């Protein structure tokens, strides 16, 4: 399980499959109703123009990379979702992703505990990162 305070460190990390083949880089993170990171998009393709979602529940954060327990083709063949949209993923999109990866929603403890309200439990929200900026002594900004 990836702790909430570590979510910002996931962006841009390289993602590798279980065989050590590079899949791409993390583009966006989705959280459940409890705020825990449950899915990430991985930029794939020649210029990173395609994005596939991966479940984070069994990801191994090995140093500066993430290792997923799937092969590269399974990730690339995941159902398409609009990773640029700021809208939550709906229940049908989530169900297709869990089915594709052979997972059950209740396999994720936090998904199971994320509330009793159907609308709340069946949505994943994109995690928004607020840029941290620090003003240097000479007035320049350090990003």
Task: Write up what this structure looks like.
With 143 residues, this protein is α+β, with helices and mostly antiparallel strands. The protein has one domain: Photosynthetic Reaction Center, Chain H, domain 2 (Alpha-Beta Complex), CATH 3.90.50. 16% of the residues lie in helices and 27% in strands. The protein has 4 helices and 9 strands. The strands form 2 sheets. Strands 1, 2, 3, 4, 5, 6 and 7 form a 7-stranded mixed beta sheet that branches. A hairpin with a 5-residue loop joins strand 1 and strand 2. The longest helix has 10 residues. It is globular. It starts with 13 loop residues before the first strand and ends with a strand.
Fold blueprint:
Layout (H helix, E strand, L loop, with lengths): L13 E3 L5 E10 L5 E8 L5 E6 L4 E3 L2 E3 L4 H5 L14 H10 L8 H4 L5 H4 L3 E2 L7 E2 L5 E2 L1
Parallel strand pairs: 1-6
Antiparallel strand pairs: 1-2, 2-3, 2-7, 3-4, 5-6, 8-9
């Amino acid at each position: 399980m990836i702790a909430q305070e570590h979510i910002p460190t996931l962006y841009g990390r390289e993602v590798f499959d279980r065989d050590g083949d590079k899949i791409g880089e993390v583009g966006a993170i989705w959280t459940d109703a409890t705020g825990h990171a449950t899915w990430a998009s991985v930029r794939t393709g020649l210029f990173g123009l395609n994005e596939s979602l991966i479940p984070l529940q069994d990801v191994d954060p090995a140093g500066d990379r993430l290792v997923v327990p799937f092969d590269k083709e399974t990730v690339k063949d995941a159902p398409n979702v609009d990773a640029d949209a700021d809208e939550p993923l709906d229940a049908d999109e989530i169900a297709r992703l869990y089915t594709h990866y052979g997972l059950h929603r209740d396999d994720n403890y936090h998904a199971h505990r994320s509330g009793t309200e159907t609308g709340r439990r069946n949505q994943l929200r994109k995690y928004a990162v607020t840029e941290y900026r620090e003003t240097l002594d000479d007035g320049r900004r350090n990003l």
